Amino acid sequence: MSAVVWVPCDAAAVSVGADAVAEALTAAGATVRRNGSRGMLWLEPLVEVETERGRVGYANVAPAEVAGLLAGDLDDGERCVGVVDDYPWLARQHRVSFARVGVIEPTDLAAYRERGGLAGLERALTLSGEDVVREVTDSGLRGRGGAGFPAGIKWETVRTAEADVKFVCCNADEGDSGTFADRMLIEGDPFTLIEGMTIAAVATGASEGFVYLRSEYPHAIRTLRRAIDIAYAHGVLGESVLGSGRRFDLDVRVGAGAYICGEETSMLESLQGRRGEVRAKPPIPALHGLFGRPTVVNNVLTLSAVPMVLADGGAAYAALGTGRSRGTQVFQLAGNVARGGVVETDFGITLGELVEGFGGGTASGRPVKAVQVGGPLGAYLPPARFGLPMDYEAFAEAGAMVGHGGIVVFDDSMDAGAMARFAMEFCAKESCGKCTPCRIGSTRGVEVIDRIRGGVQREANLVLLEDLCATMTKGSLCAMGGLTPMPVRSALEHFPEDFGVDAGTADAVAGEMPESATSTDGGARP
Amino acid sequence: MPQRGPGPAPTAAPADAVRAASVRGIAEELAGLRGPLLPVLHAVLERHGYVHDDDVPVIADVLNLSRADVLGVVSFYHDFRRTPPTAHRVTLCRAEACQARGGEATYAAATDRWAGSSDVELGEVFCLGNCALGPAGTLDGALHARLTPERLEALTAGWDR
Ligand SMILES: Cc1cc2nc3c(=O)[nH]c(=O)nc-3n(C[C@H](O)[C@H](O)[C@H](O)COP(=O)(O)O)c2cc1C
Ligand code: SF4
């Protein structure tokens, strides 16, 4: 009997040669199955061989090594990581949304069911919409796209709105650097997202759904389209969801390379076939969303948590986590990190446990200088802040944000002044152009930072930078302009020397600013 | 006959009547979708490699939009290129996570190497979702990891004639 081996089809694994390894294994006579990635990205391509002990993993396999691998040549070396399920880095996590990612073939609906899939939807179909929403509210689930808005409240608004048609839109634009969990979930276990969206539809009375998926993710687009076809063929989607008589149609729409289209109203504009310009709120999308109809907009990870909430009950999910941050969060370790990948754990784990415990410090072996948490609009934090618990409120208090859970690690070669400049530059590039503080302010921000770094009227320009940050924070229509000051200010606060500024001066300037200018959640939070 | 915008009367056949017919076919096929414009533009990109200026009035006509509407959308999004693609395309990530792994050195080397090239187009992108294995980039559309200047050089060695 030929050996059964698993080779990830995840884009990250493919980017380091997984397809060639799979071909070589097939040519060597093995039965190859393709899974998503386990999320231990530094080990990719991670090949797993089925044994009676379980699936045994081999790290960083090259095509030329497959004959040796099958002959057992790698068994005694470090490259063999043992039974993958028991590998400490993985075993220490609490995988809920990612329970099946890397374990099953992504579009194997039977395997999905066998491992608990569709139980949540089946239960939802026996409940009233009101009761489904109550489970989600009770679970404490908050939006994973960045703003942390309670999902149940949003759903209740859509549920009680009257309209000829309602929509469920999944935000899979995942533009933040350092984040890839949406992609890995879709590539590794797309039925979880489809099930979550269908539950949202059942709960709110929506009949149509769209996944807005960025064009930078061609593997995810292919996998999700295939999964949707299979879901239709098996009656999970379509005119009678699991035979309930309830209709739900789902389609994938591909973005076109615009960061701002991750902002929910810009995404809706784009879905309608327009320029991705941000809409003023109110009206809120829950009432006037896609084509002016009531619309649930949630992130991939928010929707992917829903099947478990319904299957096990809201209370079970609420039992996890800390404070007002309930459940698990899928953190992503990225950048200059030794062991990068996906860490799903309960909220409350400290930043340091993630960066050092899981991440193992930098890939370069040099000291960690800073991490940026929550994407390009998130704060830079030095190791002195590694005691912070991963919790929405604790982060907000520290002038930072959890965002989509991405953590980008930098070593001591990082220039924080250059990163602050980049934050402004990125904002200038990706601004939708609708409001002045963001469109013009970001370009002026680049210039002011250049002057500070160049030593031109440094103190006056520091005051100007603070002023500009305050204007952007308070005066921007959305969080693109509203939060760009966060990485800028935090870089200046923690690393003034990278701006050619001594710590005392930076503090004095920040101290002159009114309180509201340094708060992170002005009217601009999405 | 649907209304047309101002402009010269369509006396001569378009520069490329075959292409115009193809674009019209694509637009007609997708016109029934909700919000069809982006799917139509993506399909044109897939079939023809870029959006030609002459495609704009055809798409506008089929979808009952103004030319300005279509052009406005084409110009808003980075993906909708308006010139034919070059023989090879290198797109490198310049976002934070790849910067943390030395991506800017790779970008600088690529700029030096391909400045003024008519065969190779160098582009930038902000995040490809391969943030733990950067510097990331795509070579002729295929995703790659750990793109140091040396590795990029090795992977594209066959490109220079
Ligand atoms: C500039 C900007 C970019 C954003 N990008 C994303 C994104 O890529 N994915 C996402 O889910 N939310 C993104 N958001 C947040 C969305 O506006 C919105 O809050 C979210 O999709 C709501 O879903 P949730 O409640 O499930 O998080 C972005 C917001 C802003 C201001
Ligand atoms: S803050 Fe920037 S991205 Fe947001 S609406 Fe204003 S111009 Fe557009």
Short overview:
The complex is a heterodimer of chains A (526) and B (161). Chain A is α/β, with parallel strands linked by helices.
- Let me know the CATH homologous superfamily of the largest domain in chain A: NADH-ubiquinone oxidoreductase 51kDa subunit
Q: Could you tell me which chain pair has the largest interface and how many residues each side has?
A: A-B, 60 and 41 residues
Major sheet size, sense and barrel closure of chain B: 4 strands, mixed
Secondary-structure element series of chain B: HHHHEHHEEEH
Question: Poorly predicted ranges of chain B (pLDDT <50, ≥5 residues)?
Answer: 1-12
Instruction: Classify the helix fraction of chain A into a percent range.
Output: 40-55%
Describe the structure.
The complex is a heterodimer of chains A (526) and B (161). Chain A is of the alpha/beta class. Chain A has 4 domains: 4-91, Glutaredoxin, CATH 3.40.30.10; 109-318, Rossmann fold, CATH 3.40.50.11540; 321-411, Ubiquitin-like (UB roll); 416-517, de novo design (two linked rop proteins), CATH 1.20.1440. Chain A is 41% helix and 14% strand. Chain A has 24 helices and 16 strands. Chain A has helices at residues 11-15, 18-27, 66-71, 88-91, 109-114, 119-124, 129-139, 151-160, 181-188, 190-204, 218-233, 264-271, 300-312, 314-318, 351-358, 392-397, 416-430, 436-439, 441-454, 458-475, 479-483, 485-494, 503-512, 515-518; strands at 4-6, 31-33, 47-51, 54-58, 80-83, 167-172, 208-213, 249-254, 295-299, 321-322, 325-326, 328-335, 341-346, 368-373, 380-381, 406-411. The model of chain A is unreliable at 513-526 (pLDDT under 50). Chain B is α+β, with helices and mostly antiparallel strands. Chain B folds into 2 domains: 17-76, no CATH class; 88-155, Glutaredoxin (3-Layer(aba) Sandwich). In chain B, helix 1 runs parallel beside helix 3. Chain B is elongated. Classes of the chains: A alpha/beta (526), B alpha+beta (161). At the A-B interface, helix 1, strand 8, strand 12, strand 16 and helix 17 of A face helix 2, helix 4 and helix 5 of B. The structure holds flavin mononucleotide and iron/sulfur cluster (SF4). Flavin mononucleotide binds at residues 143-147, 149, 171, 173-175, 260, 262-264, 297-299, 302, 478-480, 526 of chain A.
